[in-house]
Amino acid sequence: MTRIEDLTLHNLAVAVDADGIATVTLNRAAKRNALDAATVEELVTLFSALPRAAVRAVVLRAEGTHFCAGLDLVEHLKEDRTAAEFMHLCLRWHEAFNKMEYSGVPIVAALKGAVVGGGLELASAAHIRVADQSTYFALPEGQRGLFTGGGATIRVADLVGKARMIDMMLTGRIYRGEEAVAVGLCQYLVEDSEAKAMELARAAARNPPLSNFAICSAISHMQNMSALDAAYAEAVVAGIVNTQADARGRLNAFANKTAARVRPD
Ligand code: 1HE
């Protein structure tokens, strides 16, 4: 099993606390955390290792004032890539983001400043997105003469719907604040996105890992299935998860009235 502390990372940093909460930091603030090929490889490496390192939840945050400025446009210009080369690069982005979405470990993104282009693709691979007042979302690909290549056609369209995504790409429309919450780009708008993301990660980490595994992988897989297959898969997953030993203890606590009740206050 890969030990997190043995990974060689330059554009990312990771720290795991005693409760198994990993804080993953985008660490290229001088370039507004733009995703160059090396960073994408580090994301693949790290998010391949985290689910097998007993990590219970992840907070994904960024150094500097912007979460992520998307594709490294300067590298892309300098590399003068062929179509095949860029296609293969996009496949590495997909490898990284699929590792995140399907890993079974809850990932909470703490957003600020620009969450644009590939930065929004990265954020949309997390399971929960938390914004602050500085956070804004955009897909400037159209203006740059580009197209999304990191899964936005799947994940961003899923969050905001096809019509809004097309509008964002055609016109450069920017969403922020309450409007960003209303259209589904983020689920929380708070003063301090990092503190809130940590609070949410800690809450998720209190669930049994097998439940979180199902929540953070099965739902995504089932979205890709026909309704008939998804219902079948749901029954199979529930068969495994809902009979786990951890569930028995919690059901016992409910039955003997020591477990918390689900009430809004
Ligand atoms: C970058 C990048 C980048 C900054 N690639 N180097 N993404 C975009 O179209 C967004 C491009 N970035 C911006 O619009 C702005 O940089 C920000 C609004 C995010 C931040 O502005 P600001 O004033 O704080 O910073 P800056 O002065 O623009 O940039 C600071 C440095 O970061 C500068 O480098 P320096 O060496 O000259 O100091 C910039 O070049 C660098 N930098 N953003 C490379 N994106 C799989 S396909 C996905 C397709 C896309 O993602 S398209 C969207 C691309």
Report on the architecture of this protein.
The chain has 265 residues and is of the alpha/beta class. Helix 1 packs parallel to helix 3 and helix 4 packs across helix 6. The protein is globular. A hairpin with a 4-residue loop joins strand 1 and strand 2. The termini are far apart. The mean pLDDT is 97. Helices cover 49% and strands 13% of the residues. The strands form two sheets. Strands 1-2-3-4-6-9 form a six-stranded mixed β-sheet, sandwiched between helices. It has a three-stranded mixed β-sheet with strand order 5-7-8. The chain has helices at 37-49, 73-79, 83-101, 118-124, 141-144, 152-160, 162-171, 177-183, 193-205, 209-223, 227-241, 245-255, and strands at 12-16, 21-26, 57-62, 107-110, 114-116, 128-131, 136-138, 175-176, 188-189. It folds into two domains: 4-205, 2-enoyl-CoA Hydratase, Chain A, domain 1 (Alpha-Beta Complex), CATH 3.90.226.10; 209-255, Orthogonal Bundle (Lyase 2-enoyl-coa Hydratase, Chain  A, domain 2), CATH 1.10.12. 3-methylmercaptopropionate-CoA (MMPA-CoA) is lined by residues 31-32, 34, 66, 69-74, 90, 93, 114, 116-118, 140-141, 144, 146, 148-150.
SSE topology:
Elements: E1 12-16, E2 21-26, H1 37-49, E3 57-62, H2 73-79, H3 83-101, E4 107-110, E5 114-116, H4 118-124, E6 128-131, E7 136-138, H5 141-144, H6 152-160, H7 162-171, E8 175-176, H8 177-183, E9 188-189, H9 193-205, H10 209-223, H11 227-241, H12 245-255
Parallel strand pairs: 2-3, 3-4, 4-6, 5-7, 6-9
Antiparallel strand pairs: 1-2, 7-8
Helix pairs in contact: 1-3, 4-6, 6-7, 10-11
The structure holds 3-methylmercaptopropionate-CoA (MMPA-CoA).
3-methylmercaptopropionate-CoA (MMPA-CoA) (1HE) binds at residues 31-32, 34, 66, 69-74, 90, 93, 114, 116-118, 140-141, 144, 146, 148-150.
